[in-house]
C-alpha cells in the first residue's frame, strides 16, 4: 500500500529542497574553478531546474569521470534531440547511406582512450549514448538561462576583418570561396590547452560548414572541433564540441546536446567531454580528425571522428540553406576578446604561439579536404586565409605530400605588439 503525503506539506518540502540545492551549489562553487557563488532566487532556481530536467534525460547508468564530469548513459531514442518540434516525424537514421568515397566506417571508437571519462574503464551499455550531465552551476555561469549553451552572433567575413570588430570575436582561419557548392569538409586538428584570461572568454579550433547570408538573420552553420570554455564547462580542459544554428546564432541551435537538434548515434563518444592526452610544447603532439558531410540520399549532415567512427548527425529538417548544400567552409581558431582592464585579452589561440614557430610549437590543421557534388572527398588547393590582427594571432598555410593542404595558426593575444 502506498504512502499518502498531505498536500499541506508541499510548500515546506519545496522550501527544504531549494535550501538543499543552494547548500549544494555553494559547496560545488568552492571546489570548481571559474565558479563564484552568489545568491540565487528560488524562482530562478526553479526555472533552471525545469530546463535541466528537459535536457538531462533519465539514464540507465551514470559514470563519474576522473575530471568530475558525470556521464549519463541514455537510451538512444530518449535523447533530447527528438524533442525538437521540427523532428516530430523524424525517423532516426542508424547510419549514413553513403560515406564519401575513400572512407571506411567503424561503428564505435573502442580501442582508444582519448576522453577523460574513458579512463575508468566503464562504458555505456549497448543501445545507449553517453551524455555529459549539465548541472545548476553550469547554467549560473552563463549570462542568462536563454544564453546557456549558445554562441554570440558573429560578424561577416568583411566586417570581422576589422581588428576592432565590435562583438569581440577574433579569428585566424582558412576558408573556401563563397560561391562554391560544398557537401562537407574534413581536417585533422592539433589539440592544445590554451590559457583563458577571464571566465566568459573562450578559445576554440573548429570546422565551420556555412550557407546563407553573413549580414542577415538566415546564416546556417554546422560546427565541430575542440574548445576551452570556462563559462560553459567550469574548467580549462580542451573538449570535443559541436554547434549548429539556422538563424545567425540568434535563437536556434546550441553547443553539444544542450538543446534539441543533433542526433547522437555513437555509444562511446561523449560530446562536451574532455580530450586526453593533449599536445605539449616541443614534445608529443596529438590531434583529432573530424569529417562532416551531407548524406547524398537522406540529406542529414553526418559527423565522423578519427578513422570513420560515426558520431551522429544534424537532421536536414533543422536547416533552410543547409537543407540543400553549403556555400563556404572555414577551418581555424576563434577567441573572444572582452578587453578586460582596457587591454587586448591574453587568452591564447591554439598553442599560444604564432604560426612561424612551426611544428611542436604552433598549432596546426592538416589534410584539409572538402566533399564535392559527387560525394567525393578531395584535397583543397585554393584556400584564402584571414587573421584580424596578426600582432595578436596569425596564420600561415602551405602544402606537402604528407599533410596535403595545411596551416599553422594561433598566438598569445596580449603582448607588446598587441596592447
UniProtKB/TrEMBL annotation:
Keywords on record: Signal
Record's signal peptide: 1-29
Keyword Signal: yes
Pfam families in alphabetical order: Neprosin, Neprosin_AP
Domain Neprosin PEP catalytic: 163-419
Protein name in the entry: Neprosin PEP catalytic domain-containing protein
Amino acid at each position: 500500500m502506498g504512502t499518502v503525503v498531505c498536500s499541506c506539506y508541499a510548500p515546506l518540502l519545496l522550501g527544504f529542497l531549494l535550501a538543499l540545492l543552494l547548500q549544494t551549489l555553494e559547496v560545488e562553487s568552492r571546489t570548481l574553478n571559474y565558479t563564484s557563488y552568489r545568491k540565487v532566487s528560488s524562482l530562478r532556481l526553479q526555472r533552471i531546474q525545469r530546463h535541466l530536467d528537459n535536457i538531462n534525460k533519465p539514464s540507465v547508468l551514470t559514470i563519474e569521470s576522473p575530471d568530475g564530469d558525470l556521464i549519463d548513459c541514455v537510451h538512444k531514442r530518449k535523447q533530447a534531440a527528438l524533442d525538437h518540434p521540427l523532428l516530430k516525424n523524424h525517423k532516426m537514421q542508424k547510419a549514413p547511406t553513403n560515406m564519401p568515397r575513400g572512407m571506411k566506417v567503424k561503428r564505435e571508437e573502442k580501442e582508444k582512450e582519448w576522453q577523460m571519462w574513458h579512463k575508468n574503464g566503464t562504458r555505456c551499455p549497448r543501445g545507449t549514448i553517453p551524455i555529459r550531465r549539465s548541472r545548476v552551476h553550469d547554467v549560473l555561469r552563463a549570462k542568462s538561462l536563454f544564453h546557456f549553451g549558445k554562441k554570440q552572433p558573429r560578424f561577416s567575413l568583411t566586417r570581422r576583418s576589422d581588428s576592432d570588430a565590435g562583438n569581440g570575436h577574433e579569428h585566424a582561419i582558412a576558408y573556401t570561396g563563397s560561391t562554391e557548392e560544398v557537401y562537407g569538409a574534413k581536417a585533422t586538428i592539433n589539440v592544445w590547452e590554451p590559457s583563458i584570461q577571464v571566465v566568459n572568454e573562450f578559445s576554440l579550433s573548429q570546422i565551420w560548414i556555412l550557407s546563407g547570408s553573413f549580414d542577415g538573420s538566415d546564416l546556417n552553420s554546422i560546427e565541430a572541433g575542440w574548445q576551452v570554455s570556462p563559462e560553459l564547462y567550469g574548467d580549462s580542459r580542451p573538449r570535443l564540441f559541436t554547434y549548429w544554428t539556422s538563424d545567425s546564432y540568434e535563437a536556434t541551435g546550441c553547443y553539444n546536446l544542450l538543446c534539441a537538434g543533433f542526433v547522437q548515434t555513437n555509444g562511446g563518444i561523449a560530446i562536451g567531454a574532455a580530450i586526453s592526452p593533449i599536445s605539449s610544447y616541443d614534445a608529443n603532439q596529438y590531434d583529432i580528425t573530424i569529417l562532416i558531410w551531407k548524406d547524398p540520399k537522406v540529406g542529414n549532415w553526418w559527423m565522423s571522428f578519427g578513422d570513420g567512427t560515426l558520431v551522429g548527425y544534424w537532421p536536414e529538417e533543422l536547416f533552410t540553406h543547409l537543407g540543400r548544400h553549403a556555400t563556404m567552409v572555414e577551418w581555424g581558431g576563434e577567441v573572444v576578446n572582452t578587453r578586460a582592464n582596457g587591454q587586448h585579452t591574453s587568452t591564447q589561440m591554439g598553442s599560444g604561439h604564432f604560426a612561424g614557430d612551426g611544428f611542436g610549437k604552433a598549432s596546426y590543421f592538416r589534410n584539409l579536404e572538402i566533399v564535392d557534388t559527387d560525394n567525393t572527398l578531395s584535397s583543397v588547393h585554393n584556400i584564402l586565409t584571414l587573421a584580424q590582427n596578426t600582432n595578436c594571432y596569425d596564420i600561415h598555410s602551405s602544402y606537402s605530400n604528407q599533410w596535403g593542404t595545411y596551416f599553422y595558426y594561433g598566438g598569445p593575444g596580449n603582448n607588446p605588439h598587441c596592447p
